[in-house]
Design brief:
hydrolase; mainly alpha; single chain; Ribosyl_crysJ1_sf; about 450 residues; 2 strands; magnesium; two-stranded antiparallel sheet; ADP-ribosylglycohydrolase; ADP-ribosylglycohydrolase fold; globular
Length: about 450
């Protein structure tokens, strides 16, 4: 069985990268692994082509423990504790509450953006462009299609195997299941059950009660395993978890913003509580930023106002803050030149890392200028985590525009439905929006 994001030999290769970023001295451990014949190159898709033999796998476990025992230098610019983060932040913006009709646009936009990116998830930027040119759809402004795609291009850049059957123009029938939407639904259930005083342990219990283990990936898969191993929070985020600064927490937190319209600091606090189950440092800040984007999108009038407000929840000297600023500044360039700059700056990172994808989200929002199609299309053609980045972008722009202004080409194929393996099965988007609005009303009373 080729189990992704879990085999010790694959985790170790990724841990070398993460530990080095955190300033740990990995030289001795890296040398032992290389001398034993271990592959130090991280697997792009979560698992190497061949499982390690028993002795090498045992060594990988030992070396993961060895790395975990190394001290992690403190970084005053990137703390994990909420109070320490709060001490670094500028004053919260004073955003005025507007109507609640934006919630339906946010849910719909998140689903549509996610769906656009699903078939090309994992395909690099150059492959996405070649597919689009070969099918006469470059630059991207509509759903992907396999119709007319030459065999050699299809072989060179195969569609995402989980998504191609449900996310191409010729086969879309509602929004198919995706973790970007599963987590939003779970957040609703969390808030309905525990209100805004939920704990990270409540999040953990919710996962165990409702979330199939096969529907979690990267940091969430490791955290889930750590829960089953009875490890406490926040050790769930660090034990043998080299993905702790990847994008997983960022995709979980839009609902926390939608139920906190205009209160970006409160949205970020909820996101921090959720994210620390599986992430640290910039992985957590990404979740806080995404929640703040969603919060600001409930009340602001422009994308720039949303971006300005959301930046106030990020430690200003953190790597995430730099990535967001880099993405926004790239909006001065046309799309090809800007994407060259983004890939030049962050192309060494894994395609599921938080920094490169946050830069893309910031760029797509800034360059898209509040138009739905251009914004989500930029997020997808950038490559990296195409469905997640476009989902976040789509949620923001969908909220600003509302469903009627998004365009029927993006909304009609969804048919107002989202598939899920969570308890209760398929959900109607209007029902999810109504439940979200009810949580806002509960907060206001």
């Amino acid at each position: 069985m080729r189990l992704t994001w879990a085999q010790p030999e694959d985790l170790l290769a990724h841990e070398f990268v993460q530990s080095a970023v955190e300033g740990r001295d990995i030289d001795r451990t890296w040398a032992r692994w290389s001398a034993a014949g271990g592959d130090p190159n991280p697997a792009v898709s979560g698992a190497g082509p061949h499982p390690a033999p028993p002795a090498l796998r045992a060594l990988a476990r030992e070396l993961l423990d060895e790395l975990a025992a190394l001290p992690t230098p403190d970084d005053p610019d990137e703390p994990d504790d909420w109070d320490a983060i709060l001490a670094l932040l500028p004053p919260a913006p004073d955003l005025r509450l507007s109507d609640k009709d934006r919630i339906l646009g946010a849910w719909t936009g998140r689903a549509a953006g996610c769906l656009l990116g699903k078939p090309v998830e994992k395909i690099p930027r150059e492959g996405i462009e070649e597919i689009l040119r070969a099918t006469g759809r470059w630059p991207l402004d509509q759903w992907f299609t396999a119709v007319g795609l030459p065999d050699d291009v299809a072989a060179r850049w195969p569609w995402n195997r989980r998504s191609a059957a449900t996310s191409l123009a010729e086969n879309i029938n509602g929004m198919p299941e995706d973790d970007d939407l599963n987590y939003a639904m779970l957040a609703l259930t969390l808030l309905e059950t525990h209100d805004r005083g939920f704990t990270t342990e409540d999040v953990a219990q919710l996962w165990l009660d409702n979330l199939p283990a096969g529907r979690v990936f990267t940091a969430e898969r490791v955290a889930y395993r750590n829960l089953l191993d009875a490890r406490p929070v926040p050790e769930t985020a660090t034990h043998h978890n080299p993905f702790r600064e990847w994008i997983g927490a960022l995709i979980r937190t839009d609902v926390f913003g939608w139920v906190s319209p205009g209160d970006v600091r409160a949205a970020a606090r909820l996101a921090w509580t959720d994210a620390r189950l599986s992430h640290t440092r910039n992985g957590v800040y990404g979740a806080m930023w995404a929640a703040a984007l969603a919060s600001a999108a409930m009340v602001c009038g422009t994308v720039e106002e949303v971006l300005d407000a959301a930046e106030t929840v990020i430690p200003p000297r953190s790597r995430l803050a730099r990535a967001v600023r880099f993405g926004r500044e790239a909006a001065r360039y046309d799309v090809p030149a800007a994407l060259d700059r983004l890939h030049g700056e962050y192309g060494d990172l894994h395609w599921v890392h938080v920094l490169n994808n946050a830069a893309v989200i910031a760029y797509a929002l800034a360059k898209g200028g509040g138009e739905f199609g251009p914004s989500v299309s930029i997020a997808v053609t950038a490559g990296w985590d195409t469905d997640s980045a476009a989902a976040t972008v789509g949620g923001v722009v969908g909220a600003l525009l509302g469903v009627d202004e998004m365009g029927t080409q993006w909304t009609k194929p969804l048919d107002g439905r989202i598939a899920t393996s969570l308890p209760g099965g398929e959900q109607r988007i209007v029902d999810l929006a109504a439940r979200t609005a009810a949580l806002v009303s509960r907060r206001d009373t």
